Amino acid sequence: MHRGGAPIAPWRVQVHRGGPRLHRGGGGAGYRGGSRGSPVVPQPHRGGRSCRSPPDLDSSLLSSPAPGRDYAAPAAPAAKAGSSTGRIVAVIGAVVDVQFDEGLPPILNALEVQGRETRLVLEVAQHLGENTVRTIAMDGTEGLVRGQKVLDSGAPIRIPVGPETLGRIMNVIGEPIDERGPITTKQFAAIHAEAPEFVEMSVEQEILVTGIKVVDLLAPYAKGGKIGLFGGAGVGKTVLIMELINNVAKAHGGYSVFAGVGERTREGNDLYHEMIESGVINLKDATSKVALVYGQMNEPPGARARVALTGLTVAEYFRDQEGQDVLLFIDNIFRFTQAGSEVSALLGRIPSAVGYQPTLATDMGTMQERITTTRKGSITSVQAIYVPADDLTDPAPATTFAHLDATTVLSRAIAELGIYPAVDPLDSTSRIMDPNIVGPEHYDVARGVQKILQDYKSLQDIIAILGMDELSEEDKLTVARARKIQRFLSQPFQVAEVFTGHMGKLVPLQETIKGFKQILAGEYDHLPEQAFYMVGPIEEAVAKAEKLAEEHA
Fold first, then answer.
1. Region (Disordered): which ranges (predicted)?
2. Rg (CA), the chain
3. Which tens digit of pLDDT belongs to each residue from 377-397?
4. What are the CB-based long-range contacts (under 8 Å, 24+) for 434-439?
5. Mean pLDDT throughout 36-50?
């Protein structure tokens, strides 16, 4: 017989006073039966609150959304007066069991541990027995003791949102961690929310013009789409991310949110200081263009599993309340899945393939479905993706791929040629590269560029062995145009001006299409290939060629 708050293993038969019942990961709560063998009927809890049926209690899918959203929240997300109070009965690493005499908090509610110098928030994950909840800690549990008081906040984790978050760094529970004082906003939002209804979504397919030639031409981003960013160390991921933040702010007046999920603290620190140097974050006035949310790899799994939702909540405010086109960067989306796997194991769930959580697809889908275009604005997400052991069939990246609209692949071979951004024009893809969406001219030019680059790639072995002289005149022309196109795909970035010495360029889409179309047509066969390197629109290449001719004259 089991009548307390002790943990129950998944799929164990738990015997209540009303007879045995099959449970899935947690005990029943508040069940009282009649005579032995009669069906178990839910009765009111001692605190006057009715309890749910066992499947509702137990199936604490960690990422299941909480209903509704109220931005006009209290000035602080502290616990309300009269909230139920519990006490800690067990601490197992990042998992804390809390017992309540009455008023059992619902799944996903935030609890706060009392009597600590630093704030510790626990999120309810499971209900155990009649009066105990199993929670996941959002910070370290060192120093916790049994019997310590815990207060139910009466709501999920709430974080500050609004323009005041721009230029600031916060953690998973919305606390500023940049040592620049509190975030002075009157608006707070719960990190768990429903995805927008179908009627709220925009069905129009529209390109988010980034001003980066290679991206806009060959693998355009859809507004409200999800882009996978693949690249190793030192090929320019950070600079590309900063340029996207800068260009979206200038071209669309939009804001960006950067969520650092389970990556190195040093990288987060470097990114912050590089953003200050490049002007993306301005410490002197309120012109910053990005909000930062960090839950780095030294954080407990609960924080890493939730920090992406915190960043998404900040982005949702700008989309839904200010009608912005928001860029949401998640670095790294694999760590979100990895943290979910750790949490699942701590909660005693049966693992699925390769040890991942059984709710992998649900966790990922719940978050990704909130990233979309509505009638008010859009959230376009760029997600850096780590592929474990380069195995694309691993469940974590494979689940992510199902949600992507475009992929931007950064290549070390292209970076070694000195061509930046080092985007691979043949590996990068986009779902909206369709003549019905981007238009026939854009589609034809993009495919023409890819064809000539592919032809050049297939000729490189012959050139390496026999040299250029052995090629036919047609192949020589293909190679010459391909090399010009390859160099014209490079572009000076505004955020990298201090490193390159080149004035940064933001190129409109029509200018990009026109330039590549003219190169393909042979209109610039007479210009040297150096003229196409590190320029903006095609007119700059012509001007650079004239300048080079004068220097050599």
1. 1-79
2. 28
3. 999 999 998 888 878 889 999
4. 437/205, 437/207, 438/207, 438/220
5. 41
Is residue 263 flagged as an active site residue? yes
pLDDT at 417 over 60: yes
Q: List Cβ neighbours of 307 (8 Å cut-off, separation of 6 or more).
A: 171, 172, 259, 260, 261, 262, 293, 294, 295, 299
Instruction: Find out whether 371 and 314 touch, Cβ atoms under 8 Å.
Output: no
Residue 103 confidence (pLDDT):
86
* Whether 551 is catalytic: no
Secondary structure percentages of the chain, helix, strand, coil, to 5: 35, 20, 45
Kindly give, in sequence order, each residue whose CB lies less than 8 Å from that of residue 68, ignoring residues fewer than 6 positions away: 193, 194
Domains and CATH numbers, the chain: 159-430 (3.40.50.300), 438-552 (1.10.1140.10)
How is residue 156 annotated by DSSP? S
Q: Write the single-letter amino acid at 36.
A: R
Q: Give 469: exposed, middle or buried? Use CB within 10 Å, 0-12, 13-18, 19+.
A: exposed
The C-alpha atoms of residue 423 and residue 415 are separated, in whole angstroms, by 8
What is the C-alpha separation between 329 and 262, in angstroms, rounded? 13
Q: Quick one: three-class SS letters along 170-211?
A: ECCCCCECCCCCCCCCCCEEECCCCCCCHHHECCCCCEECCC
The active-site residue, picked from 263, 511, 529, 540, is 263
Is it the case that residue 63 has pLDDT exceeding 90?
no
The active-site residue, picked from 180, 186, 264, 451, is 264
Instruction: Please return the burial class of 475, using the count of CB atoms within 10 Å of its CB with bins 0-12, 13-18 and 19+.
Output: middle
Eight-class DSSP state of 96 = E
CB 390 within 8 A of CB 339: no
Note if 277 is an active site residue: no
Q: How far is CA 331 from the centre of its chain?
A: 6
The whole-number average pLDDT for the span 49-65 is 40
CB proximity list for 62: less than 8 A, separation 6 or greater: 125, 136, 305, 340, 343, 344, 359, 363
Taking the C-alpha atoms of residue 182 and residue 498, their distance in angstroms, rounded to an integer, is 32
What distance in Å separates the CA atoms of residue 24 and residue 55, rounded to the nearest whole number?
7
User: Which residues in 67-171 belong to E strands, given as ranges?
Assistant: 85-92, 95-100, 110-113, 121-128, 132-137, 149-152, 158-160, 169-170
Distance, in Å, from the CA atom of 58 to the CA atom of 61, rounded to the nearest integer, reads 9
Q: Is 532 in a helix, a strand, or coil?
A: helix
Q: What is the pLDDT of residues 342-375, one digit of tens each?
A: 999 999 999 998 999 999 999 999 999 999 999 9
Q: What would the two tokens of residue 16 be?
A: 């209540």
Which among 134, 158, 168, 237 is annotated as catalytic?
A: 237
Residue 539 and residue 89: Cα distance in Å, rounded? 72
SS3 115: coil
Residue 216 vs residues 251, 496, 536: alpha-carbon distances, Å: 13, 19, 13
CA distance 71 to 193: 12
Tokens 């609890």 locate to: 111
